[in-house]
Amino acid sequence: MTDSTPLSPAGDRHFDGLAEKFAGSLYGGPRGALRLAMLDELLPAMLELDGQPVLDVGGGLGQLSAWFARRSHAVTLLEPAGDMLEQARQALGGWSVTFLQAPLQALPEHAPGPWSLIACHAVLEWLRDPRAAFATLADGLAPGGQLSLMVFNRDALRMSNVVKGNLQKALDDRLEGTGKRQRLTPISPLCHDQIVDWSREHGLSIRAVAGIRIFHDYLRQPPANEDDWQRLVALERRYCQTEPHWRLGRYLLYTLVKESEHPSRENSR
Ligand SMILES: C[S@@+](CC[C@H](N)C(=O)[O-])C[C@H]1O[C@@H](n2cnc3c(N)ncnc32)[C@H](O)[C@@H]1O
């Protein structure tokens, strides 16, 4: 296969040309349904929401923006891939959403804020330098502002590779994708410890954390019927914030809050 969807100049995996595949393979199936069901439950519990404006960074097809727009937030959706943005625009017609075609790295120019609420779900793992991106998100927050961050969990990727029998791959720690083909394996899967360290560096406190798809990806066979599906969703809900289960969620969902007082970053490095 040719590299039909190359990386951006910054080395990030913009989803140009992937809108159909992403819509089908994630949101078209049970994984997407489960993610949205969990967000319905977790976002109101993990965030303090009062209708504040929200910046959705790497908003993709707009599912998360739609979630906030339906709850009367004015949403700014930032997304570098033109076809993703166009589909989001079509899906969100009629809602109070501003669309910006730009990468996260251009936030200071395009949407400087400061923002009281930023959402960035399933984006950092597609960047060559997620740590620098984390700093940009932190800088965009107002004091006391909240960052709803969701990242692809490297520990869960290892676990699912082992469960699938990819033992040498796991042993060699060859877990990340190259981002150069149509595969949807992230190029920079992340660990909880990295988020803890980066939060500390940038004066963010971790208010809450949850795992998304803590059981689903390890099932030997998919739920046989609707009743089993509901049982699985109930289990995911019950244990998504419980030790040890949240740690092996395919995605980790955080609420990070910018401390009002924080020594300058230069001093804390
Ligand atoms: C897995 S999708 C997630 C989309 C959406 N946030 C969601 O949760 O459904 C990753 C998105 O990040 C975008 N992306 C890649 N590099 C980016 C960058 N440098 N800045 C902002 N978004 C980026 C991709 O184009 C893609 O739309």
List keywords for this structure.
18% strand, S-adenosyl-L-methionine, binds S-adenosylmethionine, alpha/beta, globular, transferase, 7 strands, Rossmann fold, SAM-dependent_MTases_sf, single chain
Q: Name the CATH architecture.
A: 3-Layer(aba) Sandwich
Structural class of the helices, strands and pairings? alpha/beta
3D shape: globular
Which small molecules are bound? S-adenosylmethionine
Q: How many distinct folded domains? A: 1
Function: Catalyzes the methylation of 5-carboxymethoxyuridine (cmo5U) to form 5-methoxycarbonylmethoxyuridine (mcmo5U) at position 34 in tRNAs.
Protein name: tRNA 5-carboxymethoxyuridine methyltransferase
EC number: 2.1.1.-
Enzyme class: transferase
Structural write-up:
- This is tRNA 5-carboxymethoxyuridine methyltransferase.
- Catalyzes the methylation of 5-carboxymethoxyuridine (cmo5U) to form 5-methoxycarbonylmethoxyuridine (mcmo5U) at position 34 in tRNAs.
- It comes from Billgrantia bachuensis.
- The chain has a single domain, classed as Vaccinia Virus protein VP39 (Rossmann fold).
- Helix content is about 40%, strand content about 20%.
- The chain is built from 11 helices and 7 strands.
- The chain is α/β, with parallel strands linked by helices and about 270 residues long.
- The longest helix has 17 residues, at about 30-45.
- The chain has a 7-stranded mixed beta sheet with strand order 3-2-1-4-5-7-6, sandwiched between helices.
- S-adenosylmethionine binds near residues 58, 64 and 126.
